[in-house]
Every structure is written in structure tokens, then in C-alpha cells.
Amino acid sequence: MWHRGGKRRQWGRSGLSKITSAIRFSRHFGIDPARLSLAGVLDPTLNVDTALFIDPMLLEHSSHAEIREGARGSYEKHFSMAIKLLAAANAKGGVAWRNAERLLSFPEINGTCLGYGTASVAGSGSGPQATASLIETARDIVALGINDPDLFAAMALFEEGFGPDRISDMTTNVIFEDLLRFNTRVLATLDVPLQVHMLRLKNGKSYSAKLPAHPFIRGNGPVILVPADILRALPIAKDWADISTAASQNAELRSRVNDHVAALWQAKTLKDKGELKRWAMSGTNAFETVLEMLRGANPKPYDMAGDPFGELVWRRIAEEIAASEPRSITPLRSPDAAGVCAVVEDIIAQFRFLIEDRRLSEELYYQGKPRPEKSAQRLFFAIAYAYCKANNIDLTPEADTGNGPVDFKLSTGFISRVLVEIKLSTNTKLVSGYTKQLERYSAAEETTAGYYVVLDVGQMGQKHERLIGARNDATLAGQKVSPIELIDGTRRQSASKL
């Protein structure tokens, strides 16, 4: 039986592609997760990145002195120097330019377990081309007379390729020494085995620190713990809802933003970065307005306990289900498509049982509203893993079929492939996902079967009837169709209220 325990961006690129299970730091080192929570640190998943990011706008608000004072000071010192070099860089390739390039090169630091990695926790950070683009834009901003270190965080609003992972890599590199001091203090309270690591970053800097050994990094790399109160699902510079609201509530800011650009802000979209870039760099006042908008947006760290995007909860559920084996696992009858389909149907039945009868449906919601669809897909993985492991079935989340990613592919070989799509009833493309995507994926993967699993969390309307109609029409036309599995994901009353 699955038991509730504790409280509860989308999966996106931060999925679980080709990993075997979710292994948390606390589980691997045998410590109570509550101790990490009490220490104010993220309990990272060691073998797949968590899609949370260090936000530089949160440093000064941290409850940890190493971060609030040390890291924020390091951040300001580093970028103040970069700004001085950019102001003195008369030509590309000159001494000042090369020194600025060195300061603005931010390779990803393995061990924090943050980012968009899929099959591992190792990334590449910013390459030469991305660094060159960053320097060009930053130099143009400095030429406007802007000398605020936060200009680099603001660039995420309009600089292509400068997303949350880049900002996080940037900040991690700059505050790395402060982060190590934080680890020294926290790890001393956790009774975790440590060893000396010589850390040589790609930017030439070297450090020596006593840290836990990371079991999934080649060469015996370290685990680097990160304070929970500087992490966000997206940096403040990407959160248009907060920024546009901050701007609209400030009469002075409203008066400084022309009507056309104000409309872009209110649209809360990143589609027209070019237009915003042209406005932001049109003069000193415009860019200073951008900075004021960022600071007025009241940055808050990710809600670790509530977990609004389901970044963390699936890991606990995976561990609990694997440990308790809530239902006997039927052995694979045969290593062909029929055998795989039987296991998939068993998985879907268990998924339905836990959601409808064991109140796993609660994990589909945050503060009464459905979590993102990717959260439901993670829950499916958490349940499917034990079945696939027992039957030696390859479970591949977000498999690329050539026509785009499908949620899950299960297979025992080239000819025994079964696809599963997990959708919420709130998805506006629920019907088209069935009529177009799944069957196209099946053809591309030469798949013998596919299942379309729909979780009813509200806003179903006529979608179910339309799905059934589409299936019936395809059947009459002699086309290959997939079973539609409807699961009631509405919230249940607790047992005491039934």
C-alpha cells in the first residue's frame, strides 16, 4: 500500500531519460531528509538533475550568512570588475576584452545536481559562442552608462539562449568559494562521510574542499549541497507574471514605459525578445527601468514543502512504492509486444488504483489547483519503475520518435515497443494529442501498441466524448487505434470524512 508522507517546470528537458531510479542524497547517505530540511538545504537527486536554479536576486535574502553576505559580496565584486573591463574594451580580442571574457565564462559545475540534464547530472555550461554573445550585449549595455552588477541577470529577459540554467551556472561559478564555506558548516552537522576533493574549474580556478563523494560522477566527483532559499523554478528575470505586475503597480514605472512595450510586458510572453531588447537598450533610463522592475517583483524561493511544479514529490513516492511493492508484479509472459502490453496494462491498473483508491490524487494538486502535466508523468514513472525493473523492460521517458518526444516508451527489443502518453483533462490539446500525436509516434517508432492515459482533474467538458468519437471513427476507417484509459484524478475526501 502506498502511504502518504509529509507535504507535497514542468518536467521539460529535466526529465528522467534512461535513468534507472531516483536516488536522493538522503537515501544514499542514510540520513533523515528532515535533517536536510532543517539545515535549509535541497535534498538533491543524485542521478538526475532537479530543474531548480540558483537565482542571484535571492542571494541577499538568504538566511545563511555565507550566502547573504559572502556570496552577494562576491557576486557584486565579480561583475563590477567585469563591467570595468567591458567599459575599457575598445576592440574585440584586446587585453581588456580577453580579461572580461575570462570573467564571463561560466562552465557548469558538476555536483550541485541542478539544471536541465536528462540522463545525468553532468552538463557543459556556457560555450565560447554563448560567451561571445553575452559579452557583446553586455558591452553595449555598459556603453549606455549602466554599471549595476544585476544587469547580467536582467539580460535573461531578452538575450536568446540566456535562460535559467545559464544564470544558475553564472551565479554558481561566481559564488563557488562561498558555497564551499556553506557546505563546510552544514556537512559538519550531518554525519556524512567526506573526502578531500581537488576541484579544478574550466575557467582556471582551483579549490580544495572536504565533500561527500558523488556516486554518479565519473572520476569520483563531489556532491555540493545548495541552500534551498536561493533556488527558484525560474529566475526572477524570467518570471513575467511577477515583473509585469510589479511594473503595473508602480505609477512611476508605468509612466516610463511606452504603451507598446507595456503591452508586451502585460502579455507575459517571451515571444518578442527582440522588441524588448530594442527598447531596453534604447537608453540609460529604459534599462534602469528594467532593473527597477526586477527588484520590484518580490523574489521568493521555490516552495520546497508545497512543491508546486512537482519537482520533488515523485522521488519520495518512487522510493515508497519500490520499498512496499504495493501489488504483486506479474512476470513477463513473453518478450514480445503482447507480453509488454500485459505489463503496461498492469502498470496503468496500479496507477489507477493508487490515484482513485489510495488518494495519490492529492499529489496531482498544489493549493487546490492541478500541478503541471509533467508532474503527473513523473508520478507514472514512479509507479512504472518497479514493474519494469522486475520484468527487465526498458522504460524510456520522453523518448524521441523523430516527430517529437512521446511521454514513455517501454520495450524489450526493437519489435516489442509500447508507447504511453499521460495527459491531464486541462490540456487544451487533449483530443488532438490522441488523433495526431500518438499514432504518428507509433508509426515512427514502428511500435506495436500505444496507450492514451487521461487524468480527469477538471475542465473535461466534452473532451472525453470527442476522444471516444475520434477512436470510433478511426476504428470504422480501419485505422490503428490506441486504448483510451480515463482515470478519475479528482481530489478525494479523507477517510475520516467519508
What does this structure look like?
Helix 3 (65-88) packs antiparallel against helix 4 (95-103) and helix 3 runs antiparallel to helix 8 (176-187). This protein has 18 helices and 11 strands. Strands 7-8-9-10-11 form a 5-stranded mixed β-sheet, sandwiched between helices. Strands 1-4 form a two-stranded antiparallel ribbon. It has 498 residues and is an alpha+beta fold.
Structural class: alpha+beta
| Helix-strand sequence | HHEHHHHHHEEEHHHHHHHEEHEEEHEHE
- State the end-to-end CA separation: 19 Å
Spatial order of strands in the largest sheet: 7-8-9-10-11
| Main sheet properties | 5 strands, mixed
Number of strands: 11
Helical segment tally? 18
- Principal-axes geometry comes out as globular
Using the CA coordinates, give the radius of gyration: 25 Å
Count of spatially separate domains: 3
